[in-house]
């Protein structure tokens, strides 16, 4: 049997149980109007959005809490009790297959004193038991064991103290997302035209995709948005930042002409999503074994010429806010925020399930060599983000705006690729990314609207 990953809908996680006499003072959730920090039309950005602690706390409740966030890949769950622990913003969560083979997610925090009830990264279990005082929960999140139960008052009801469940979990092409919003726009609607671009990587055939090689994790100094925006919008850095890596991998002595200097397009999503890609029928700068195995005629029949010659190539993409992928490399990743100055990168290698073992291994190794923790491209990117962050706290430096004007006014419907697109060398998707960030930051989330 396969897992059932269907939309789930639970009660508001912010109202999981009666709060009694608890009332959080408004001063603890102060908000900042960020309208003057992002000029999407003029292409200017205030660096405070990368460094300010108060803005970061506001991001967690207004950007991360209401958004659809990537949780895991469906291939990580095969039988009831299979679990994977991850984060939604800075909230630790457990993703698990329940006894009915449905994928669910819970806040990884005991309702007694708040410790995690599951400390392993991945595995299988029958229940979740807190190692602090022994409260235990089943796969449905229900509190099933309380040591010294007789010491609690008669009003204590275990039904009120189960794990806080992520109210909505859904999937697209094997990618599992969740949101704390109890009444969100659906995942597919939220993706919009971005789904067309995602299919170029995740819908090669009816067998779907699988994960190989586990999850790689590493920490970088730098704001999470620096990484997310680059994967959404930035082909511009390739020529300079990755020059040495391109010389190593290029089949010719002139990689700049062979690989970098090509025409292409950039998808500019209305919900902050973005994707860039060269457009060339022979743009296949990937592992030779994978390239030779791939049936491009079958892909053209399934996906169409526009996708095979565009977003299936050496492209880059971000699903807002913090899920990114590289189609030809086979990498998907999440930029977990760890404060305004630090991020934790979690990376998977994803391949077609139909790939034979030797082709899977070739893709896995190619990913590691290029965009693994010590990959020749990955090292360049991490150094850039850390460099930007390192100097952005200076008083004068922090007040000097950043320029996002490349491709300003070039956005249009090109008639070949869905939605609005710009040139390959453009900041258009970056401007859209920050415009959507600004909108969310200035919009009260569901938990604030309830208390107004």
UniProtKB/TrEMBL annotation:
Q: Name one Pfam family in it.
A: Ring_hydroxyl_A
Give the GO molecular function terms.
2 iron, 2 sulfur cluster binding; dioxygenase activity; iron ion binding; monooxygenase activity; oxidoreductase activity, acting on paired donors, with incorporation or reduction of molecular oxygen
SUPFAM superfamilies, alphabetized: Bet v1-like, ISP domain
Domain of life, per the record?
Bacteria
Sorted keywords for this record are: 2Fe-2S, Aromatic hydrocarbons catabolism, Dioxygenase, Iron, Iron-sulfur, Metal-binding, NAD, Oxidoreductase
Query: What family, per the record?
Result: Belongs to the bacterial ring-hydroxylating dioxygenase alpha subunit family.
Would you tell me the protein name for this molecule? 3-phenylpropionate/trans-cinnamate dioxygenase alpha subunit
What organism does this protein naturally occur in? Nocardia alba
């Amino acid at each position: 049997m396969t897992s059932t990953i269907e939309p789930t809908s639970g009660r508001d996680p912010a109202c999981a149980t009666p709060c009694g006499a608890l009332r959080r003072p408004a001063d603890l959730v102060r908000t900042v109007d960020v309208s003057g920090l992002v000029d999407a039309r003029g292409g200017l950005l205030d660096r405070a959005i990368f460094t300010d602690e108060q803005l970061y706390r506001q991001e967690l409740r207004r950007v991360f809490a209401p958004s659809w966030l990537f949780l895991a890949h469906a291939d990580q769950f095969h039988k009831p009790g299979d679990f994977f622990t991850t984060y939604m913003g800075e909230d630790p969560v457990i993703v698990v297959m329940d006894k009915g083979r449905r994928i669910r997610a819970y806040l990884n925090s005991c309702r007694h004193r708040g410790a995690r009830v599951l400390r392993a990264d991945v595995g299988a279990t029958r229940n979740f038991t807190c190692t602090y005082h022994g409260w235990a929960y089943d796969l449905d999140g229900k509190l099933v064991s309380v040591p010294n139960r007789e010491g609690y008052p008669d009003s204590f009801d275990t039904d009120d103290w189960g794990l806080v469940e992520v109210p909505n979990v859904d999937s697209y092409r094997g990618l599992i997302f969740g949101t704390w919003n109890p009444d969100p726009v659906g995942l597919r609607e939220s993706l919009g035209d971005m789904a067309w671009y995602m299919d170029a990587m995740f819908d090669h055939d009816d067998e779907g995709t699988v994960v190989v090689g586990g999850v790689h994790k590493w920490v970088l100094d730098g704001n999470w948005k620096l990484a997310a925006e680059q994967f959404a919008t930035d082909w511009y850095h390739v020529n300079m930042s990755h020059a040495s890596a391109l010389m190593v991998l290029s089949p010719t002595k002139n990689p700049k002409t062979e690989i970098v200097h090509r025409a292409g397009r950039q998808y500019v999503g209305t919900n902050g999503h973005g994707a860039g890609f060269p457009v060339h029928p022979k743009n296949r700068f990937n592992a030779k074994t994978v390239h030779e195995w791939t049936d491009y005629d079958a892909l053209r029949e399934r996906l169409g010429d526009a996708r095979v010659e565009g977003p299936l190539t050496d492209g880059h993409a971000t699903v807002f806010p913090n899920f990114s992928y590289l189609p030809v490399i086979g990498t998907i990743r999440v930029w977990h925020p760890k404060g305004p100055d630090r991020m934790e990168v979690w990376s998977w290698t994803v391949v077609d399930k139909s790939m034979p073992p030797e082709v899977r291994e070739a893709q896995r190794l190619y990913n590691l060599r290029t965009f693994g923790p010590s990959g020749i491209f990955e090292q360049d990117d991490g150094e850039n983000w850390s460099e930007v962050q390192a100097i952005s706290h200076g008083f004068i430096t922090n007040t000097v705006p950043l320029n996002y004007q490349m491709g300003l006014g070039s956005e249009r419907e090109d008639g070949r690729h869905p939605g609005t697109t710009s040139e390959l060398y453009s900041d258009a998707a970056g401007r859209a990314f920050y415009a959507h960030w600004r909108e969310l930051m200035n919009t009260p989330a569901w938990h604030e609207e309830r208390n107004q």
